[in-house]
């Protein structure tokens, strides 16, 4: 904070001491207030955190003989000018104001680079910050992908350090107000023109506080890896390779900011019977030669364990697909897909004597019929 801002603050009142208080009185008052409003004693209490910063700022000025002397001089100067120019609004204290209206803070702001009384920097409160997104993977069974499931996932994310409660300072110590920006978190640098550029303070990196005795766990960053197990609901109908965004399940936010999201990449195990085609399930079932030729009604298993009846018309070719409606996977927009049943004519490895004789009789009955004749008719001679 620049000297121009000291004139607008009563540091003695902040610490609850008189203007002629001794250094010991100031130190005692600071310790009492700092202990009462320390972040370790008031976790997640933004008001206490702001009060702690105000107390630390006041002590950083009044505990230094040189700064205290300069502060007292600025306060005296401010009182003289405000009494002559701004009391009542007009020059010399006359009411009504006008062209002679003058604010000493405007003058001091111009001298010290504060940008005017209305634009001078203030100690910046911690801004709410959204937690980071966390990515992870999970492998589920085929049944879980269709029916949905709740999975226990062990997550590791970057959160407030549990040792120092996010202050970055070793327990029992407190961060100090940054001497470069005086707790504002911002600094003003020359841009080479008529205007000055305001940017995050390079010493405290915009925090407004500097850690002199860092926490051994987070090494002063205030952040540490945290592991926790959470129950994550995977929706019904999820597909292999699908990425699911779970709102608010990621890293925790700071200063009241929202949590980040969890991005879950899903891998689905293969099933020995069923496959997936969009929202439809697929299955291949064997049929006998006579069932394909003469027709039949067969029972086909479903993923839920029940069976569904499929009618095979006479003369069904190998590889034909039938549809059992409502026996597939759930749609995102509601409803359920179908079960696609593909038939495959089964050729027996061995035949009984009776079966062999029957096949021979069939061959004789079909003598002269060659299903490959049409192939040769399509080939140029």
How are the SSEs ordered, and which strands pair?
Elements: H1 3-6, H2 11-15, H3 23-37, H4 46-62, H5 65-86, H6 104-112, E1 134-140, H7 142-147, E2 149-160, E3 176-177, E4 186-190, E5 196-200, E6 209-210, E7 223-234, E8 243-246, E9 262-268, E10 275-277, E11 280-287, H8 289-294, E12 296-301, E13 307-312, E14 321-324, E15 339-345, H9 353-365, H10 373-377
Parallel strand pairs: 1-9, 11-15
Antiparallel strand pairs: 2-7, 3-6, 4-5, 8-9, 10-11, 12-13, 14-15
Note the total helix count: 10
Low-confidence stretches: 80-121
- Based on helices, strands and strand pairing, what is the structural class? alpha+beta
How many strands in all?
15
* CATH homologous group name of the domain at 3-112: DnaJ domain
Please give the share of residues in helix: 25-40%
Q: CATH class of the domain at 3-112, anyone?
A: Mainly Alpha
Average pLDDT works out at 79
Radius of gyration: 40 Å
Secondary-structure element order, N to C = HHHHHHEHEEEEEEEEEEHEEEEHH
Say what the CATH topology of the domain at 3-112 is.
Helix Hairpins
Overall CATH architecture of the domain at 3-112 = Orthogonal Bundle
What's the end-to-end separation, in Å? Answer: 99 Å
**Rough outline:** rod-shaped
**What can be said about the biggest beta sheet?**
4 strands, mixed
Q: Which band does the percent of strand residues land in?
A: 15-25%
Adjacency order of strands in the biggest sheet: 10-11-15-14
